[in-house]
Design brief:
Structural class: mainly alpha
Strand content: under 5%
Largest sheet: 2 strands, antiparallel
Radius of gyration: 18 Å
Order of helices and strands: HHHHHHHHEEHHHH
Helix content: 55-70%
Oligomer: single chain
Distance between the termini: 36 Å
Number of strands: 2
Length: about 250
């Protein structure tokens, strides 16, 4: 087990150092009030336009075709499979957060859904009323006391913050499944995530389209929704009252 964790721990240490050194600083009063910190807005808006084009001409039509051709039950099953593959990584993040109970819940869901859910295509853990267990390294950094940092929009990924951008990178390495040799799950992880995002984009198409293509300022709208949702997930109180927090996976855009 120690050998499996050495690489993730090294990546965690290096990434945390980069995060500490590279983050722009925000006025403490503005940060305490929950004010949006967007010092890279011009660059972010350019990336947002790139992401919109990528969505309009590639991801959106592909997702619509996917949910049209693939039966809803299979779309759900593929989403369950991708979610199940992430559980060992969630367990590692919970351990890094000092949350032993959360790690046990993540591993419990992984075991139940893998064994009784046909490799994770089903979700009997939810039927058995097992507690949900989902986290990421961005939340781990939050637990460690790292600030949110500046708002950034990532090419292909969409809205994020400097803290969560580091988290996205580190999460590629924290899943113990990716450290096992001759492991078919490693080859399936990224394709499963892509298929899951196609399903999410197709399922929530109307809502996402209204944000990207019908709002007066899609950049400001998506920024506000992302930050409010993320702060809500992390239990932060300083969220804007303009939009109620709701769970929305925009498929990276």
């Amino acid at each position: 087990m120690f050998e499996l964790l050495k690489k993730p721990v090294l990546v965690v240490a290096l990434s945390s150092t980069v995060l500490t050194a590279a983050c722009a600083t925000q006025d403490p009063v503005a940060r305490a009030s929950g004010e949006i910190f967007d010092p890279y807005e011009n660059t972010n808006r350019s990336i947002h336009q790139f992401n919109k084009g990528l969505d309009r001409y590639a991801f959106r039509p592909a997702s619509k075709g996917y949910v049209t051709i693939v039966p809803p039950d299979m779309v759900t099953a593929f989403g369950n499979f991708a979610e199940n593959l992430s559980k060992p990584g969630d367990a590692v993040n919970y351990l890094l957060q000092g949350n032993i109970k959360g790690a046990g819940q993540a591993l419990g869901r992984f075991a139940v859904n893998t064994i009784f859910g046909i490799g994770g295509l089903g979700d009997p853990a939810t039927d058995f009323k097992m507690a949900p267990a989902r986290t990421d390294f961005g939340e781990t950094l939050h637990v460690w006391g790292a600030g949110e940092g500046a708002y950034v929009e990532l090419p292909g990924f969409g809205p994020s913050t400097t803290r969560d951008a580091v988290g996205i990178f580190v999460d590629f390495f924290t899943n113990p499944l990716s450290q096992l040799e001759n492991n078919p799950a490693e080859d399936l992880d990224i394709p499963a995530k892509i298929v899951d995002q196609l399903g999410n984009r197709g399922t929530y198409s109307d809502t996402i389209d209204s944000i990207l293509y019908e709002s007066a300022d899609s950049y400001a709208q998506s920024r506000q929704i992302y930050l409010q949702n993320r702060r809500f997930e992390l239990g932060q109180e300083n969220t804007s009252a303009d939009i109620d927090p709701f769970e929305l996976d925009t498929g990276g855009f």
